[in-house]
Amino acid sequence: MQPLLKVQGLNKQIAQRSGFLQRKMVYLLKDISFCIGQGETLAVIGETGAGKSTLAKVLAGADDASSGQILLESELLKDGSKQLMDSRNIRLIFQDPTTSLNPALTIEEILDDCLRFNTELSAEERLEKIKQTLSKVGLLVEHRHYYPHMFSGGQLQRVALARALILDPKVLVLDEALSSLDPSVRAQTVNLLLDLQRETGLSYVLITHHLSLVKHMSDQVMVLDHGEIVEYGNTQEIFCNPKSKTCQRLLTC
Fold first, then answer.
1. Residue 200 domain-assigned?
2. Is 198 a domain residue?
3. Most buried of the four, 80, 102, 157, 214, by CB within 10 Å?
4. Do 144 and 242 belong to one domain?
5. pTM of the prediction?
6. Which residues of the chain have pLDDT under 70?
7. DSSP assignment, residue 182?
8. Residue 253: predicted pLDDT
């Protein structure tokens, strides 16, 4: 069975100053390869600076790779720095939705912009899609008239989720998207994500430092250290028998 998302030999390098008038190439990501099946969740963990957020941005098309390939349903999505297909099928949700939601626009205007720029739906069809998507993430249809500042943190993250889902993606990349929520709100959001996954077959790349979320949500775990994979496999097996020092350190914190 073909994986939904396949990443092969992904590298990201940047030039860093190394002495007077000298620069050296540094790897932010080095030879990253993994697969995710439809309806599966891959958790990505690691210490600060491990390359987790860089990986999230590269997957979602918000940053370029230096080399390597990203394939979605066996179709080449990205080859090195070349974006060969649009990235509507892989959507990214950040930790703080306030930085990615325009405060001057209503929720309807924000969601409508996504549809206008990425689909050929009519105004009537776009409005119906907006209403359906808001209901899907547990918000009221009337919330489309609200501005971002009128929502609580948990509701704002649902708005960000609605904006990601409105284009019917196949993969959601959650970059610490649950970390800033209160425990009760986080639990509600996790249940919502799991329900959506069961209903639609969504696949998740979950980047988090909450190991309880990793155990609860993920099928596989990938451990990064300085941009390299030091451990990768079944979640339960890795939690029961971590082999890398990085993973052992993370699990004992």
1. no
2. no
3. 157
4. no
5. 0.91
6. 1, 19, 253
7. -
8. 67
